[in-house]
Amino acid sequence: MSDPLTTNSEIVLECQALGYAVRETWLVRDISLSIARGERIGIVGPNGSGKSTLLKLLAGIMKPREGQVQLMGRALQGLNRREIAQTLAFVEQQADTLDAISVQDAVELGRTPWLSPVQPWSERDDEVVRHALQDVALAHLSTRAWKTLSGGERQRVHIARALAQTPQVLLLDEPTNHLDIRQQLALLKLVHGLPVTTVMALHDLNQALTCDRLAVMSSGRLVALGPPHDVLTPQQLQNTFGVAGRWLIDPVDGARMLRLEHLSEQERETHD
Amino acid sequence: MSRPISRLGLLARLIGSVTILAIAVLAGIAIGETAIEPSIVLQTLANKLWTAGYGLDPIDEGIVWSYRLPRTLVAGACGAGLAICGLILQALLRNPLAEPYLLGISAGASTGAVLIAVIGVGGGLISLPVGAFAGAVVAFGLVAILARTSRGASASSQIILAGIAGSQLFNALTAYLITKSASAEQARGIMFWLLGNLSGVRWSSVWMAIPAVAIALLVCFWYRRALDAFTFGSDSAASLGIPVRQTRTVLIACAAFVTAIMVSIVGSIGFVGLVIPHAVRLLVGSRHTRLVPTSALVGALFLISADILSRILIKGQVLPIGVITALIGAPVFALLLIRGARVR
Question: Which of B96, B226, B243 sits opposite A98 (nearest CB)?
Answer without folding.
Answer: B96
